[in-house]
Amino acid sequence: DAMVIQNPRYQVTQFGKPVTLSCSQTLNHNVMYWYQQKSSQAPKLLFHYYDKDFNNEADTPDNFQSRRPNTSFCFLDIRSPGLGDAAMYLCATSRDRGGARKYEFFGPGTRLTVL
Amino acid sequence: DQQVKQNSPSLSVQEGRISILNCDYTNSMFDYFLWYKKYPAEGPTFLISISSIKDKNEDGRFTVFLNKSAKHLSLHIVPSQPGDSAVYFCAASAGGADGLTFGKGTHLIIQP
């Protein structure tokens, strides 16, 4: 019955070692998002895909990349994780853009630890 | 520069009473507002939303009020139940922009 699935739930990586987080959805939604949430902070949008169209937020570091090979899957790649990248990473989907169609379904998140 | 602010990190309410969670925003381009509820170890789940053309939206025990002139919205939960204990996030979106701008959340604790 799961709708937005994130793997793994917990990820430990070493400083500077590339890491990939995975998100899949069974909702067939057009839009997929990645948010970063640091402790006691608001979730912050990193980027999103509208279908295959990639949209980066202006202040998202170049260290963060994303891939969406098909409708169901989206990946977050962190090329050289720093200690400041330790956070919860939330994947979300929405059916479409605008108004009432905007509300997003979230996955349970992947907690990333950087040693 | 927080565009969505939830100034109360936590709120404690007795079971059966009304819970009022507040949210302020600064971006006048926001035209759609949402509340999410989050339990530990789970992602946020959508609770209720309101368009900027309305000032109130009700869904069962949950009502959201929007005061555009004050750039303020609030979520009322009546009556509060133990299962309402969670972190509540206020979020907003602007026109054609994608993605949501979130507040930091308010941890609601319902006491028996």
Termini of chain A, distance in Å? Answer: 34 Å
| E-strand count of chain A | 11
H and E string of chain B: EEEEEEEEEEE
Give average pLDDT of chain B, whole number: 94
Number of strands of chain B: 11
Quaternary state reads heterodimer
Number of helices of chain A: 0
Q: How does this structure look, described?
A:
The complex is a heterodimer of chains A (115) and B (112). By secondary structure, chain A is an all-beta fold. Chain A is built from no helices and eleven strands. In chain A, strand 5 and strand 6 form a beta hairpin. Chain A is globular, with a radius of gyration of 13 Å. Chain A starts with a strand and ends with a strand. The mean pLDDT of chain A is 92. Chain B has 112 residues and is an all-beta fold. Helix content of chain B is 0%, strand content 56%. Chain B is built from no helices and eleven strands. In chain B, strands 2, 4, 5, 9, 10 and 11 form a six-stranded mixed beta sheet that branches. In chain B, a hairpin with a 4-residue loop joins strand 7 and strand 8 (72-77). Chains A and B meet through strand 4, strand 5 and strand 10 of A and strand 4, strand 5 and strand 10 of B.
Secondary-structure map:
The complex is a heterodimer of chains A (115) and B (112).
Chain A: E1 4-7, E2 10-13, E3 19-25, E4 31-37, E5 44-50, E6 53-56, E7 64-67, E8 73-78, E9 87-94, E10 105-106, E11 110-114
Parallel strand pairs in A: 2-11
Antiparallel strand pairs in A: 1-3, 3-8, 4-5, 4-9, 5-6, 7-8, 9-10, 9-11
Chain B: E1 4-5, E2 10-14, E3 19-25, E4 30-38, E5 45-51, E6 56-59, E7 62-67, E8 72-77, E9 86-94, E10 101-102, E11 106-111
Parallel strand pairs in B: 2-11
Antiparallel strand pairs in B: 1-3, 3-8, 4-5, 4-9, 6-7, 7-8, 9-10, 9-11
List keywords for this structure.
heterodimer, A: 115 residues, mainly beta, seven-stranded mixed β-sheet, four-stranded antiparallel β-sheet, 0% helix, 50% strand, globular, B: 112 residues, six-stranded mixed β-sheet, five-stranded antiparallel β-sheet, 11 strands
